[in-house]
Design brief:
The chain has about 250 residues and is an alpha/beta fold. The protein folds into two domains: about 5-85 and about 165-249, Rossmann fold, CATH 3.40.50.300; about 90-155, no CATH class. It is built from ten helices and ten strands. The strands form two sheets. It has a six-stranded mixed beta sheet with strand order 6-7-8-3-9-10, sandwiched between helices. The radius of gyration is 18 Å and the shape is globular.
Length: about 250
Amino acid sequence: MSALRLQSVSKRYGGIVALDRVSIDIDGPGIYGLIGPNGAGKTTLFDVIAGAVRPDSGQVIIEGVAVTGQASHQIARLGITRTFQECRILLEESCLDNLRFAAQPKGLLAVLSQTLSRSGAHHRRVRDQALDLLRRVNLHDYADAPAAQLSFGQRRLLEIVCSFIVPSRVMLLDEPAAGVNPALLEVLADFIRSMFREQPRIFLLVEHNMEFVMSLAQDIIVMHQGTVLERGTPKQVQASERVLEAYLG
């Protein structure tokens, strides 16, 4: 049974076909790359998996359970976590408070339940976990500083580590390397590798930085014009004439 399966998923926006009968099986934990030219359908695919967009047809199946059409907060409860192309953090809040907020259950009832039931020990565990995540990406010195003080690349790292403070089975990382300088890219790559070693799960990365994604992922899925064009190891994908044609026209 596949851990994550997309079965003939299609999505159209008026006359634009964003996804055209996309089928992808991901059997289990691993670091997977999702690449393709602009407009290939990568982010739409993430939106469908995460429940932000309902497909016109097809199924999204997580560990044997069809979740197509469920709201994003319902899918998040199943252990699906995602980041976005644009950086989404609370600039006026401290880095530590950004992580605390990310750790909170979303929705009024969930927040009320947490307020009534969570102990001081729980809050201390969250703080310890948050500080550990900040340390892993060299942001521990900024724990109590407003996120606005960070560089753009550091803000990107903060957003990504925020997504790791909640338990997850599938991590959808949308262009994590965008706007991150080479030195911070090494920190980010080491962070992703170490988190996978410690907690093996599905990491699916949409990425335009080919060097970054090829160095991380062992399985690359190439999309073009809303379909899956190719899939294989980094070497197989880099040698594919169809992939070269799609990128170079």
